[in-house]
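Quick one:
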Amino acid sequence: MSSSPTDLLRGAIDFHVHCAPDVVPRAQDAFSLAAAAAEVGMAAIGLKDHTTSTIGRCHVLNQLYPDGPRFLSSLVLNPQVGGLNPAAVEAALLAGVEIVYFPTFAAQHHLDCLGRGFSPVPHPKSGFDPICIIGEDGNLVAEVNPIAHEIAAFGAILATGHLSPAESIALLTAAGEAGVRKMIVTHASESVPAMSVEEQRACVALGATIEHSLLATTPCCPGTIDPEVIVDQIRAVGIEHCIVSSDFGQLANGPPVEAFAEHLERLSRAGLSEREIRHLVVENPARLIG
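Output:
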């Protein structure tokens, strides 16, 4: 075990962090989060916002921290950007976005599992239609193919969001055929999507990396799981195919960098060696971002 929890973060990459400004209260704003990440020597942080692109925040932070950490921007295909909107994806990629998430709180699977009363963001007064990427005919909806081709053309990362396991597998299949080479299954062990080991292995066979987020082990996440569950799934799928992120930013979990370090220590106590943790938070994510 590391002599200090933050020692595990030196050179680490956390692909999945939320911060203010946001439509819901967050534990830290972008500037204090960046300062904390720089202080412990993190290599990169991915900023995620369920309602808008984070390219502007990341551009400013990358100018302020030219020697690192690097801040990775993302776009989530929820109703606030038009859902499955190829034009929004193209514009975001042209601006420099590095990660494109398929729908999260608006995904049909998210709503089936958690309902409209549980969401990372307040629902618009006008409501919205749930998003499913598989049509009534059993095929992927038309918007998926141009979005996948845009992601491939820019060499960006595709993340599955809160789609169902079946949708995720169909998406990864199509994305691979479109030429996407960097794909992440979003927090596979959280209550959404709650992928089985067999489903995770199917995604790996399609070229995807499996993300496990430590939010799943906290009371903030419905269906909280023990760290040992994540360790067991990582070992069953293969540590070389997995990354660990935090998905932190919730008020109850406190400042994300500090919470990430503390919960990595929990993984250590659950059986992962420090060398294995570095594979999951340093080496494997570094291959994704280059």
